[in-house]
């Protein structure tokens, strides 16, 4: 069952464009998160011994970076959905 079957061709095209946009956005988020991991590895992983605090700081930083990227994605998603609903 197609949930968009009742849409006009123009609206269907708009939905397809938004879905393509979100796929691209998701791919961009994954690239950003991967860059964070690479940056941290190059900046922090040159030492031989790490303390518990070092590892905790590292994981907290990565968690924050991931949360920021996901929050930005969600905000963009909500903005576009609100725009669609206002038409």
In words, what does this structure look like?
The protein is built from two helices and no strands. The chain has one domain. The protein is an all-alpha fold. The chain has helices spanning 9-44, 52-86. The chain is elongated.
* Gyration radius, rounded: 19 Å
Query: Percent of residues in helical segments?
Result: over 70%
Query: What is the chain-wise order of helices and strands?
Result: HH
Unreliable runs: none
Helix count? 2
List how many beta strands DSSP finds: 0
Shape: elongated
Number of domains: 1
Strand coverage percent: under 5%
What is the CA–CA distance across the termini? Answer: 24 Å
Most strands sheet: none
Oligomeric status: single chain
Structural class: mainly alpha
Residue-averaged pLDDT:
80
Keywords:
87 residues; mainly alpha; 2 helices; elongated
Brief digest:
With 87 residues, this protein is mainly α. It contains two helices and no strands.
Topology diagram in text:
Elements: H1 9-44, H2 52-86
Helix pairs in contact: 1-2
């Amino acid at each position: 069952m197609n949930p968009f079957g009742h849409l006009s061709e123009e609206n269907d095209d708009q939905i397809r464009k938004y879905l393509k946009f979100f796929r691209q956005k998701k791919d961009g988020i994954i690239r950003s998160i991967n860059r964070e991991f690479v940056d941290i590895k190059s900046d922090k992983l040159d030492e031989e011994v790490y303390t518990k605090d070092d590892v905790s700081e590292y994981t907290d930083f990565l968690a924050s970076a991931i949360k920021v990227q996901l929050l930005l994605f969600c905000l963009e998603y909500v903005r576009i959905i609100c725009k669609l609903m206002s038409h």
